Amino acid sequence: MVAVSTVTPLEQDVLLNMNKIEIGHGSGGKLTRDLIENIFLKYLKSDELKPLEDAASINLDHNHKAAVTTDSYVIRPLFFPGGNIGKLSVCGTVNDLVVSGAVPKYLTVGFIIEEGFLMKDLEEIVRSISETAESAGVKIVTGDTKVVEKNKGDGIYINTTGIGEIVKPMDLKNVSAGDKVIITGTIGDHGTAVAIAREEFNIDAAVESDCAALNGMLEPLFDIAGVKWMRDPTRGGVATVLVELSEATGLGVLISEEDMPVREDVRFIQDMLGYDPLYLANEGKAIIITSAESSDRVLEMLKGHPLGKDAALIGNITADFKGLRLKTIIGGERVLDMLEEDTLPRIC
User: Fold this and answer.
1) Residue 92 and residue 83: Cα distance in Å, rounded?
2) Residue 142, exposed/middle/buried by CB under 10 A (0-12, 13-18, 19+)?
3) What is the per-residue pLDDT for 9?
4) How many Å apart are CA 78 and CA 80, to the nearest integer?
């Protein structure tokens, strides 16, 4: 007797794709988390890695700790309004250090360049790296260059590793019910700027990426005892970061749609495209969890800095429920979760 398969072609495709890397595995959402838990953490184990924060804390001696972080940049297009892959590779890694409570000090830079890449474009990218690093007060101390054959590298990829000195340890264990959630400025700018630059949607709008190094704005907050935790909401956006916070603490997060700072042109464009700014990448913003008593002082200091002029208190931490909820403008509440895939892949 011949066995007859009851699996449909669609189900066969799903089963096959379960054994392959998909673009969504790099989104920073559910698929990324599954990949980390099921593959990477299965084999890569250390106390320093376990917290899965933006930077690892390394004990140097009894009195000093270093923060170490690494990030790879594959953004498309390489040049976009407000920046390029070079500027982004410095800002992104500097920001991962400073939201971890560290003063950024040193960067390494690795280049994977495709054969045929224009020298003038490479020079512009490297010039941006130099200028951005100097402005952020960090030194480029070592690097590496590899070249791959034409059509096997998509132009250029960059990896940067950052080292900083921890002066204010950030720990999710310090977050408690009643704490406030602050965002340092408007959300969705970077994702919108890159979407426009890709010219896939035929949109003509003057939206620039928020790509910026945040250490000059955030380091002064290290002196405020009530500042408990920070994170820069890059891939996956604000919503993904706050879902991760809720899962790690066992607490709930309630944010307000009315209080969320979103530029009108960004909101209009994302409504037209069907995207939610809460899930779009940002490259010059930070989420800050602070005690209720310190929230006014934090906002005052942020608004006194050019990068924080649109800072806003957007919600609070609660023990009344778990997960992330959005209080809508009409007064209802909507449950938010991580997305399976990134709405705009290769955004950083």
Assistant:
1) 12
2) exposed
3) 60
4) 7
Flag whether 125 is in a domain. Answer: yes
Examine the domain organization and report whether 158 and 295 are in the same domain.
no
pLDDT of 11 > 60? The answer is no
Return the structure tokens found at 148: 């791959």
Q: What torsion do the CA atoms of 307, 312, 313, 315 make, to the nearest 10 degrees? A: -100
d(CA 348, CA 338): 18
Contact 204, 314 (CB under 8 A): no
- Say yes or no: 132 and 182 in one domain: no
Same-domain pairing of 259 and 178: yes
Confidence (pLDDT) at 2: 46
pLDDT of res. 303: 99
Q: Alpha-carbon distance 132 to 136, whole Å?
A: 6
> What does the alpha-carbon distance between residue 99 and residue 54 come to, in Å, rounded to a whole number?
8
Q: Long-range contacts: 194-203, Cβ < 8 Å, 24+?
A: 194/75, 194/77, 194/80, 194/281, 194/344, 194/347, 195/269, 195/273, 195/275, 195/344, 196/81, 196/269, 197/77, 197/79, 197/80, 197/81, 198/76, 198/77, 201/273, 203/269, 203/272
194 and 211 belong to one structural domain: yes
Please name the residue ranges forming H helices in 234-294.
237-249, 264-273
Domain containing residue 160: CATH number: 3.30.1330.10
Number of domains in the chain: 2
Q: Are 255 and 327 in contact (CB under 8 A)?
A: yes
pLDDT, residue 23, reads: 83
pLDDT in tens, 82-135: 999 999 999 999 999 999 999 999 999 999 999 999 999 999 999 999 999 999
pLDDT tens across 28-48, in order? Answer: 778 888 898 899 989 999 988
Cα-to-chain-centroid distance, residue 244: 12
